[in-house]
C-alpha cells in the first residue's frame, strides 16, 4: 500500500525533476539567445564596416580606375556573402521568431551597399558583379536611415528572454553620406575617366601564307581563306564590338565578300574569333580589309588592318 509519506516523497521528487528540467531549459535558451546575439552583432558590425569602406572609397576620387573598380566589386561580393551569413540566423528559432526582424535589417543593409555601388558603377561605366538597383542618392540615404530605425527597434527583442541579451548599437554611415557630392567628384576625376580603346592585336590566315612582305598574303592554291582576328579591349569597361571583313578582287577573278562579326569583351580582355571564311580561286588577287569598331558607335574605339592577297596557282608558291 502506498503511504502518505511515500506519496509526499514522490511528489517532491517529481517537483525537483520539473524544476531541474525548467532550469536546464532556461539555461539552454539563454545560451541559444546569447549565441544568436553574438552572431547578429557580428553580422551587423560587418555591414557597418563595409559601409565605412564604401564611403571611404567614394571619397577617394584620385584612385585609379582599375583599383577603384576592383574595390567596388569586393564590397558587393562581401555584401552578397553577408546575406548568406544572415540566413543562418533563421535556425534555431528564438522566441516569437523575432530573428526575422534582425535578418531583415542585415538584408536591408546589404541591399543599400549593393545599390550604392551599382549607382556609382553605372555612372562611371564600371563593370560590377553582383549588381543591384540604380537609385537616386536621396533614395539610398532614406533606405540606409530606415535600416537604422529598424535596428534600433530590433536591439531589444531578446531583453525579456533568458540571457537578457541586448544587441549592439549600429548606425549605417550611408544614411548621412553625401552620395550626390561624391558622384560629382568621381565623375570629374581624370583617373576614373573612361577611355575606350579597342585594338586588333593579331590576325591569322588559313592556309598559312608563304613568306612574303608585310601586309601581303601569298597563299597556296585553295578554295577558301579563313581570316582569324584577335581583338583586345584595353579599357577597364565592358565593351561590345563589331569586326567587318571585306574582300575585293583586283584582277577580275573570284567574287567580292563581306561579313560582320559581333561580340563582347570584359574589361582588359582579349578574344580570338574567326569572323570570315572567304571563297578563293587559284590565280586571283585582291584586298582584305578588317575594320574593328566599338559597338554601337565607332567612338567606342576602332582599329583596322589591310592585306593584299595573292592566291598562287602552284603549291610551291
TL;DR?
This protein is an alpha+beta fold.
Question: Describe it for me?
Answer:
The protein has about 325 residues and is of the alpha+beta class. It has helices at about 5-60, 65-85, 100-125, 135-155, 180-185, and strands spanning about 200-205, 215-220, 225-235, 240-250, 255-265, 270-280, 285-295, 300-310. The chain has a 5-stranded mixed sheet, with no helix packed on it. The protein has a 3-stranded antiparallel sheet with strand order 1-3-6, with no helix packed on it. Helix 1 (about 5-60) packs antiparallel against helix 2, helix 2 (about 65-85) packs antiparallel against helix 3 (about 100-125) and helix 3 packs parallel to helix 5. The longest helix is centred in the N-terminal third of the chain and has 55 residues, at about 5-60. The model is unreliable at about 1-25 (pLDDT under 50).
Amino acid at each position: 500500500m502506498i503511504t502518505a509519506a511515500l506519496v509526499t516523497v514522490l511528489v517532491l521528487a517529481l517537483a525537483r525533476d520539473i524544476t531541474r528540467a525548467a532550469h536546464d531549459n532556461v539555461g539552454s535558451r539563454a545560451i541559444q539567445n546569447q549565441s544568436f546575439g553574438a552572431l547578429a552583432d557580428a553580422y551587423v558590425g560587418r555591414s557597418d564596416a563595409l559601409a565605412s569602406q564604401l564611403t571611404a572609397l567614394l571619397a577617394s576620387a584620385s584612385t585609379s580606375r582599375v583599383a577603384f573598380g576592383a574595390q567596388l566589386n569586393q564590397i558587393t561580393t562581401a555584401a552578397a556573402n553577408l546575406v548568406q551569413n544572415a540566413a543562418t540566423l533563421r535556425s534555431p528559432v528564438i522566441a516569437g521568431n523575432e530573428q526575422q526582424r534582425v535578418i531583415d535589417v542585415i538584408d536591408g543593409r546589404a541591399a543599400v551597399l549593393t545599390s550604392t555601388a551599382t549607382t556609382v558603377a553605372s555612372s562611371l561605366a564600371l563593370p560590377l558583379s553582383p549588381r543591384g538597383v540604380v537609385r537616386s542618392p536621396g533614395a539610398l540615404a532614406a533606405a540606409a536611415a530606415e535600416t537604422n530605425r529598424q535596428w534600433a527597434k530590433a536591439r531589444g527583442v531578446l531583453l525579456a528572454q533568458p540571457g537578457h541579451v541586448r544587441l549592439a548599437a549600429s548606425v549605417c554611415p550611408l544614411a548621412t553620406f553625401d552620395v550626390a557630392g561624391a558622384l560629382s567628384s568621381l565623375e570629374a576625376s581624370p583617373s576614373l575617366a573612361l577611355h575606350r580603346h579597342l585594338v586588333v592585336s593579331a590576325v591569322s590566315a588559313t592556309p598559312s601564307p608563304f613568306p612574303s612582305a608585310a601586309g601581303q598574303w601569298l597563299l597556296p592554291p585553295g578554295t577558301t581563306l579563313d581570316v582569324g582576328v584577335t581583338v583586345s579591349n584595353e579599357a577597364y569597361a565592358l565593351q561590345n564590338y563589331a569586326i567587318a571583313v571585306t574582300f575585293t578582287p583586283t584582277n577580275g577573278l573570284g567574287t567580292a565578300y563581306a561579313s560582320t562579326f559581333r561580340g563582347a569583351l570584359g574589361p582588359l580582355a582579349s578574344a580570338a574569333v574567326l569572323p570570315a571564311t572567304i571563297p578563293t580561286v587559284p590565280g586571283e588577287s585582291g584586298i582584305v580589309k578588317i575594320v574593328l569598331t566599338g559597338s554601337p558607335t565607332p567612338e567606342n574605339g576602332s582599329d583596322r588592318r589591310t592585306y593584299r592577297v595573292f592566291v598562287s596557282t602552284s603549291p610551291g608558291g
